[in-house]
Amino acid sequence: MEPKTHSHEGSTLSEMDVRVRALETLLVDKGYVDPAALDVLIDTYEHRVGPHNGARVVARAWVDAAYRAWLLEDATAAIGSDETFGFRGRQGEHMVALENTPQVHNMVVCTLCSCYPWPVLGLPPVWYKSAPYRSRVVIDPRGVLADFGMTLPSSTEIRVWDSTAEIRYLVLPMRPGGTEGWSEAQLASLVTRDSMIGTGIALDPSGVAAGAGSAR
Amino acid sequence: MNGAQDLGGMMGFGPVEPEAHEPAFHAPWERRVFALTLAAGFTGQWNIDMARSARESLPPAKYLSSSYYEIWLQGLERLLVDRGMLTAQEVAAGRSLAPARTDLRAVAADAVPATLARGGPSEREAGAPARFSVGDAVRTLEMNPAHHTRLPRYVRGKVGRIVALRGAHVFPDTNARGLGEQPQWLYTVRFDAHELWGPDTTASSVCTDCWEPYLAPAA
Predict the structure, then answer these.
(1) Contact state of A20 with B67 under an 8 Å Cβ cutoff
(2) Which one of B33, B40, B67 has the shortest CB-CB distance to A33?
(3) Prediction ipTM score
(4) CA distances from A119 to A95, B141, B219 (A)
(5) What is the nearest CA distance from B206 to chain A, expressed in angstroms?
(6) Is B186 on the interface with A (CB under 8 A)?
(7) Measured distance CA(B164)–CA(A72) in Å, rounded
(8) What's residue A183's pLDDT?
């Protein structure tokens, strides 16, 4: 069976649009949801919250040893406190940061559904929620990394973290070499979403103009 | 429940296909399903474990052939009917056929940011001291409950070691069934990959978060 991911036939799409619109009308008419609240929710997760949040956290940890220690000790406070970033709340109530080193590479999954640290990464990409990743990364993480075009030395210990509870994991990728003297904002541009899940590493600075926007 | 959601270790789904510059939503209706699910949830008629349970109760063939937000939509419809907010006939017809519940209030748009910032923390006061400590060897129970649980099949009956104590948290196995939060100690348990898969793995270890009732001391 070929699980459907995000490809939709045109006819399916319009059928779904009609069905969902009818449900929305029902819920609004019955007074269960405020249509303006729906717009706020969509705007929040489509435009405001995303991996650029997590990238700032990682960049801070790269330049500030005390912050890094705090992040690894109590990520919920280090990320969510008003004195730092204030990235907190839904699907990030209990945060844990996982430090990648030359010896240890961490990868995060939710095999049972799609648990993901929304306040720092936004909503998960389709592949993270789909059967190929959820089924395979816990048994064959190197095969999954190969799908991302990535190979790690055979000596690297690969630790997979299955988010089965309300703990949300953020990978702290290694700081790339050749970035001495870079500002936090410049460093954040090297931090990809995938590097904070563990299916990638931070970008090589030689391929990036300092200060460019962060990619995948 | 041994449903199709419990995917760890299954094979044959093909490669992971990352999408460059992926948008948050792939169709207009996905935006609406996402927002409707959260906004309807704000009425407090179900908890997160009930929502997961509703999605997992789809027949396996249906679950595996549905896209992510199709699963969300079907879960939402089930919850709305189960709580008497809509009738099954209304969901099918797509129009109102019965009076609304009058005891519910929608969360207003200006209250959404604070609601999201508050989230739904699952940590609670512990009712008893933790049974296990970091470093302890534990064995997960061999169990196959017909109801919602968060112990995946691939880590049942396996020996691992506790690497972190996360506090006492709402217990999904009861919370999903309306039997109360019954907070239990939550541990992160590391399993050697060979303990889980024998020789057929490229992982070094897998960690899962396990509530205390899932664990027994390793003999």
Answers:
(1) no
(2) B40
(3) 0.98
(4) 10, 33, 41
(5) 5
(6) yes
(7) 13
(8) 97
Closest partner residue to A112 (CB to CB) among B6, B19, B23 is B6
Is A206 annotated in the active site? no
Are B206 and A159 in contact (CB < 8 Å)?
A: yes
pLDDT (tens digit, 9 = 90+) per residue, B145-175?
Answer: 999 999 999 999 999 999 999 999 999 999 9
What's this model's pTM, rounded to 2 decimal places? 0.95
Q: For chain B, where do the domains classified as CATH 1.10.472.20 start and end?
A: 28-118
Task: Tell me the C-alpha distance between B170 and B9, whole Å.
Answer: 27
Architecture of the structural domain at B123-217: Roll (2.30)
Contacts B33 to A, Cβ<8 Å: 20
Domain ranges in chain B with CATH number 2.30.30.50 = 123-217
User: What fold characterizes domain A50-207?
Assistant: Nitrile Hydratase; Chain A (3.90.330)
Q: Which residues of chain A have pLDDT under 70?
A: 1-13, 209-216
Check CB contact under 8 Å for B18 and A147.
yes
- Could you tell me which CATH class the domain B28-118 is placed in? mainly alpha
With CA atoms as reference, report the closest residue to A187 among A169, A167, A204.
A204
CA dihedral B138, B173, A113, A91 (to 10 degrees): -90
